[in-house]
Design brief:
Structural class: alpha+beta
Helix content: 40-55%
Strand order of the largest sheet: 6-5-4-3-1-2-11
CATH topology of the largest domain: 2-methylcitrate dehydratase PrpD
CATH class of the largest domain: Mainly Alpha
Shape: globular
Oligomer: single chain
Largest sheet: 7 strands, mixed
Length: 538
């Protein structure tokens, strides 16, 4: 049976659970670094972290989304929710780790990738080529010259068989762990030496491996996604809202229950386990949107990269009468708390790093204002997850598609979720999501390097506050004509044909003189001493 992998609620849409920041640039980079950590046996001594010469933007804008700390923290085996990620430079230097961010002398064949060249304290070396591909998801292309093409969705075992004597032990291991076996392939490295990459749904104990292979000949790479791939995974249940509605009708069950079936088919989890994980997500997001209130608006410090805009908003509301209505004002309270990105206040993306918090800002404010139950809010999260999975199926739900792939998809998910919470039908959920997505088409992804969260702040707050409007439009009977998945087709076509306009260093507001000055501030003031560090001789 072939390995199945398609967009999932907890791997792709509401994942990973992480420290605040960009899911692609902070969580994804830390995951790539964390896999690299496991490619070397002794403690890390030196690391060279290199980008392709064609990817000048990555090196020039390094640090804008904390990707430098992600890579370096992952190399120290910090998980995505580990607050030590913020101090990755300081902790690496305290451990005597020398590191350098640089460019490769020539292209490595994987555009957009990063290459780790590592040296351990025992003289052992390793090389990994991988990439954060958006939303916290990663792709590991090569380890030590073996092309494994692996997503950290399983426990991966890489075996170097230079002498050609491990074929029988490999077969023996697969037979011994037949119930946990997922896939395997035979490989050759760049020197023509044989190797094997075997995937399991559980970590194989070391004692089973050393009984079959010499210790220096194998690497065990960890599964980093919350839902691990197994051979029991069923085909994707639906890919459009129309299919979702049809299956619900055929099974004579609610729209929400069909979404739960989607996740059950992917993960193999029970309904109780799925609901419990959504409750966990809701609890994390609730803490995030209330963090400024609970910690105190005046107590959370500004940073060189991000002022606490919620403090300005709170002062303004207490000094004068805000122009917006009470519901919008409450959504903005929560959205500013989301934007604060307070270290130690973990988040759940949906789809971009703080998207889950912006989405939840709208859902919780509506729940409070209209007296909906907590159970109805959790149902809204489940509906949002279904819409997110459809978005990831048909488009790049990331900045690669422009801001519509981030705040736009977030707004669509929130709009559909609120529509359901307010008693809407599956058809009305689709109408709300389509309208929200249509309104965001054409907006580029153009975060200003060193630009203090602009223009992202304006778009993410707008996504939250407009979600109830699209829900009201759908509930009133407005039909946007174009199904949700067709809008996603348009987004993907636009991404493919207009990449430089949709996302890039010179699109949108990054064309301005001020944005270019901000980029110099990032390069010189923020990252000036962080690109290279040589530890003192020990």
């Amino acid at each position: 049976m072939a390995k199945r992998f398609y967009p999932d609620f907890f791997n792709d849409v509401f994942g990973p659970i992480m420290q605040p920041g960009s899911s692609g640039s902070f969580a994804g980079t830390s995951r790539v670094g964390r896999v690299a950590h496991h490619t070397i046996k002794s403690s890390l001594l030196r690391a060279k972290i290199s980008f392709n010469p064609s990817d000048k933007r990555h090196l020039r804008h390094l640090g804008n989304m904390m990707d430098d700390r992600g890579y370096l923290g992952g190399l120290q085996n910090f998980a995505t929710d580990d607050v030590r990620l913020f101090d990755a430079h300081k902790l690496a230097r305290e451990k005597g780790i020398s590191y350098e961010f640089t460019a490769l002398p020539e292209e490595n064949g994987y555009p957009g990738s990063v290459q780790f060249d590592l040296v351990g304290k025992d003289g052992d070396t390793s090389q990994l080529v991988g990439q954060s591909v958006g939303g916290g998801m990663i792709m590991i292309y090569e380890v030590n010259g073996f092309q494994i093409h692996w997503q950290a969705d399983t426990f991966g075992l890489l075996i170097h068989d230079a002498e050609g004597r491990y074929a029988e032990p490999v077969s023996s291991l697969i037979d011994r762990f037949r119930e946990q076996y997922v896939a395997h392939k035979e490989l050759k490295n760049k020197q023509g030496e044989r190797g094997y990459f075997i995937e399991f749904s559980v970590a194989i104990p070391d004692h089973d491996l050393v009984s079959l292979f010499d210790e220096e000949d194998f690497l065990l790479l960890p599964a980093l996604l919350p839902v691990v791939t197994t051979l029991n995974r069923k085909p994707q249940l639906f890919q459009t809202v129309d299919e979702w509605i049809k299956i619900s009708q055929e099974r004579n069950q609610s729209f929400v229950h069909t979404a739960i079936d989607y996740e059950r088919d992917f993960s193999g989890w029970s309904e109780t386990e799925i609901i419990a994980y959504f409750e966990k997500i809701a609890d994390i997001l609730d803490h995030q949107i209330h963090a400024l209130e609970r910690l105190g608006y005046e107590n959370v410090p500004d940073t060189p990269m991000l002022p606490i805009y919620g403090r300005l908003w709170n002062r303004y509301k207490h000094k004068s009468h805000a122009l917006v209505d009470s519901l919008t004002s409450r959504i903005m309270d929560y959205a500013y708390s989301t934007n604060a990105k307070i270290p130690g206040v973990v988040i759940v993306p949906g789809p971009m790093g703080t998207g889950g918090g912006y989405l939840y800002s709208a859902l919780e404010a509506v729940r409070e204002a209209r007296g909906f139950s907590h159970e109805k809010l959790v149902e809204g999260l489940i509906v949002a997850a279904g819409l997110g999975a459809i978005a990831f199926t048909h488009a790049h739900a990331s900045g690669e598609s422009g801001c519509v792939g981030e705040s736009g998809v977030c707004c669509a998910m929130a709009s559909g979720a609120i529509t359901w919470m307010a008693g809407g039908t599956g058809e009305q959920v689709q109408h709300a999501a389509s309208m929200a997505l249509q309104a965001n088409i054409g907006i580029p992804c153009d975060p200003i390097p060193g630009g203090l969260e602009f223009p992202c702040l304006t778009r993410t707050v707008r996504a939250a506050v407009t979600a109830p409007m699209y829900a009201d439009m759908a509930l009133s009977g407005v039909d946007p004509l174009i199904p949700y998945h067709e809008v996603l087709f348009a987004i993907e076509k636009n991404r493919q044909e207009n990449q430089k306009v949709v996302s890039g260093p010179l699109c949108g507001v990054n064309c301005t003189l001020t944005a270019q000055k901000c980029a110099l501030f990032l390069k010189d003031e923020v990252m000036g001493d962080k690109l290279k560090y040589i530890a003192p001789a020990q």
